[in-house]
Fold each of these.
Amino acid sequence: MTTLLYDGSFDGLFTSIFEVFEYRYKNVEIVSRERFHQENIFAEIHEVITQNDKAERVLNKLEQNIGKGGIHELLKVYLSEDPEAEQLILSAVRQSIKYPEENILQNYADNNILKISKICKSVSRERHRMTAFVRFEKMQDDVFFAKIDPDFNVLPLIRKHFKDRYQDQKWMIYDLRRNYGILYDLEACDFFYPDEKLDLNKYQQKFHDEEARYQTLWQRYFTKTNIVERKNLKLHIQHVPRRYWKYLTEKW
Amino acid sequence: MNFDRLKEKLEILADAAKYDVSCSSSGGSRKNKKGALGDSSASGICHTYTEDGRCVSLLKILLTNHCIYDCAYCVSRSSNDIKRAAFTVEEVVDLTINFYRRNYIEGLFLSSGIFKNADTTMERLVRVAKKLRLEENFNGYIHLKSIPGASDELMQEAALYADRLSINLEIPTESGLKLLAPEKNRQDMLNPMKYIQNGIAQYKDEKKIFRKTPKFAPAGQSTQMIVGATNENDLQIIKVADHFYKNFSLKRVYYSGYVPVLEDKRLPSLTTEVPMLRENRLYQSDWLMRFYGFKAEEILDPNMPFLDLEVDPKMSWALRHLDQFPVNLQTADYQMILRIPGIGVKTAQKIVSARRFQVLNIDHLKKLGAAVNRAKYFIDFTAGNAFLKYLTDKNLKKLLIGGSSSKFHNQFSQQLTLF
C-alpha cells in the first residue's frame, strides 16, 4: 500500500494521479496532508509536489476522452470534500484511460461512477441553492454583503453567476465555514483569504440606512404572498431545509 | 413617500396577486450588458418558498386592485368590500430594483385590476417594464399580464420589454366564463394572445436574417385556468390545455385549484376544500403531454372524463393498457421506457445510456432512481422478473396503491386531523 500525500489543491490531486501512473502504483491511496493521520504504519509514504504541467497532461488527456463537461463533473467531486473524493476521481481516470473511446462517466451501472454521479447531483443542488439563497445586505460602504455556510465548497462554482448578474454594485460573498470569500469591487472579481476570521460583531450596526426598510418590506411580502388555505409546511421545508434559514432574510 | 403606507400597499397588492400561480422565471435569456444590472437564464431560480410550498421567484404584485369588472371568482371584484390600493410606476420600479439587488428575486411579475379600460391599464403596465429596461438598465426577468382587449400597439410594446406575457383564461369553458364573469368574453383574451404568438413567430424568422433583431417576449406566453369553480370535467380541461399548447404555442398552462374566497350562489360554498389532489393530477397529465409523448386522448376519453384520484395518470394509462407490458429494458425504445410507471425522464435517459455498457437488473434500476415499487410489475429483465406474475392479477391496482403512500392520503379519509 502506498499513500500519496498532496497539498489539497485540484492541481495537486491531478499531479498525484499523474504520479500513480508514472510510478505504476497498483495499491494506492491519495490523501491531502491536512486530512492525513497515519493509520497504516506499513504504508509507504510518497510526498507529491504539485506540478502544474503534470496535472495539465492528465487533464488534457481526460478532456479528449470525457470532454470539458466530464472534467467539470470531476471538479465537483473534488469540491464535495467527500472523504472518498480522491479515490473516486482516480478510479474514473483509470477507467477513462482504459476505455478512451467511451465516456465512462455514463456507465451508471459501475458503483464508483454512480457515486460520482450522485455526488455531482448533490454538489449541483447545493450550488443552485446558493445562487437562490444568498441574501445580500447593503452595508454603509455600499457593499452588498452575504454570508453563506454551504455543505460543499461551492463558492468557486457560483462566482460566474454573480459576476455576470451584479455588475453595477459592489458585492461580497463570504463562506463562514471555510473562511474565504469573493469580492467584486466594480472592476475585479476575485477570491480573498483573510488571515483572521471575519468579525461579525455588531454587524447590523454597519448596515446602510435603507437596509432595514427593504428587509421589512421583503418580510411582509413573503408573508402576504402565502396562501393560508393551502398551507403545506412539509413541502416548504423540503424546498427550504432548516439549515439554510439562518441566513434567509424572510425567515428572520 | 410614507414608509408605512408603502408597506400597506405592498401587503394589499401582494395579497391580491397571490392567486396567480405562475412564478416561473425560466425561458428567458437576457445577458447582462456591460456594467448593467441583472440577467436571466433559461433555467430560472426559485429564491424561496412560501409556507404553502410554492416557489417565490418573482416579485408578484398587482399595480392596483381597483377593478371595473365584477368576476365572481376574484377577490378584487368591484362589488367586494376590501381595502384598495395602487402603486405608482416609480414605486414598483424601486421595489423591483432593490429586491433584485439583494438577490431576493429573479424579477417582476406585474398584473393589475382593470381601471378605466383595457388600454389605460395595459399602458401603465408597459410603462413599468419600459422604465425598468431603459432607465434602470435592468436585464432581469419581467412577466407582464396581457389585459384582455388591449390593443395590438400596446401588445407590441409590451413584448419588446417583457420576457413573458400571460393572459388568464380563468374558466376552462366559455359557458362557465359567461356565468361567472359576464363582462368578459373569450375573444378579448384570444386576440392579444394571437398577436403575441404571431409576433414571436415573426421574430424567429427575422432572427435568421438579422442577428440583432430586438427580443420579442423571449420566454413566450402562458395561461391559467381555475379548477373546480364551475362544473367542467378533467377531459374538457386537458383538451383546452392541449388546444392552447398546439394552436397558441403556449409555454405553460397553469391549473389553480379554486380557493373559496367569496360567498356567491354561482360558486362552491366557502367551506369547500381546495381541490389540491385534482390540481396535482392535472399537472401530472400536463407533464405527460409535454415531456412524455402522451396525447390528450390517451390520458382520458369521453367514457372516463375524470382523472383517477387514486393513481397517477401514467399508472392509470398503464393499467388500461396492460397488453403493452412487460417492457424489455434492454431493447425497448426510449418512448416506451418513458411509459413505464415509476420511471421518469431522467431515469429513462440514464437507462438508455447505461444499457450500452451492460445488462441491467432490478438493483441497477433502483440505483438509477426509478420508483421500483411501481416499476417492478411492468418490466421484463433479461435475468427474469418474479413480479411479472402480478401483471395479470386482478388486484394489481390494489397492490400498487398499497405499495406506495400518497402525500394526499388525508384527503381520502373523512376523519378530522387535529395535528
Note: Chain A touches chain B through 52 residues (CB under 8 Å).
Amino acid sequence: MKRIFRKLFWAWEFDKEEEWLNAMSAKGLQLCDVGFCRYVFEEGLPREYVYRLELLDNVPNHAESIQYIQFIEDTGAEQIGTLFRWVYFRKKTDGNEFNLFSNIDSRIKHLDRILVLTGILSGVNLLNGGTQLHAWISQEMSFNFTVSILCFTVGILIGYGFLRVFFKRRKLKKEKILHE
Amino acid sequence: MTMENIALTEAVYYILLSLYSPLHGYGIMQKIEDLSAGRVRLAAGTLYGAINTLLEKGWIHALPGEKNNRKKEYEITALGKKIATNELMRLRELLTNGEKIIEGGSK
C-alpha cells in the first residue's frame, strides 16, 4: 500500500531531508516516488534502504547527469526520482555505509552548487524587490509595493539559507587544514 | 613549486594504484576496499569526480570498450605511473622520518 506525505524542505535542509527519509525507512516506509513537497512511500522492511540526495551540476536529463546517475547505479544504488536539479538515490542496506561523498573536498563541491543556486535566487529576489520599491517610490503604485515586499521576503529567506550553507562550508574548509 | 610535487589525496593515490590493471568504477571501489583491508571505502560520487579529474590530467585513460558495454573501464597511463612513483618516494620519506622520531624517541 502506498502512502503519500506532504512536506516542505528547503534546498539548504537537504541533510535534514535525508535524515527524515532514513527515519521513515527505519519505520518500514520506503520512498518510491518524489515530487514537489510530495513523497510517496510504500510499505517495506524496516531499514531496507538507505537514502541519499544530491544537487546535480546540470538538469537531470542533461547528458552529463545521465552519465553520472548511470555511474552511481552501476555501484549498486538506484535512482528513485528527480526534482528540479535534485536526484534521489537509495541503496539496499548491506552492512556498509552508503554515502555519495567520502572526503571533504567532494562535500565542499556539493555545497558550492547549493551556494550558487541559493545565492542567485536570493540575489535576483532582493534586486527585484529593490527595483520594485524604487518604482513605487517614484511613481507611487501600490502594486509595486506589494511585489517589492514579497521579493524582499523571499530574498531574505533564501539569503538565510545561503548563509547556513556558507557557514557549513566554512567549517569543512577549516577541517580540511587538518584532514582530507 | 609545481602542483605535481604536492601530496596526492588518499583517494587519488588509491585510484592510481587500483588502475595498474583495468577496472570499471565499481571495480575501483572494491579494489580499494580490498587493498586497504576495508579501511578506505570510496563513495561513488567522490570517485566519479576524481575519475573525471584524473582523465583531464591524463593520469588515467578510458579503454575503448564495446558499444553495448556501458561500464567503462579505466587504466593508469605512463604519466600516472610516474606520479604514483613520486608519491611512493614521498611516502617513504614520511615513513622513515616518522619511524626515526616517533619510534626512535620512545626506545
Note: The radius of gyration of chain B is 16 Å.
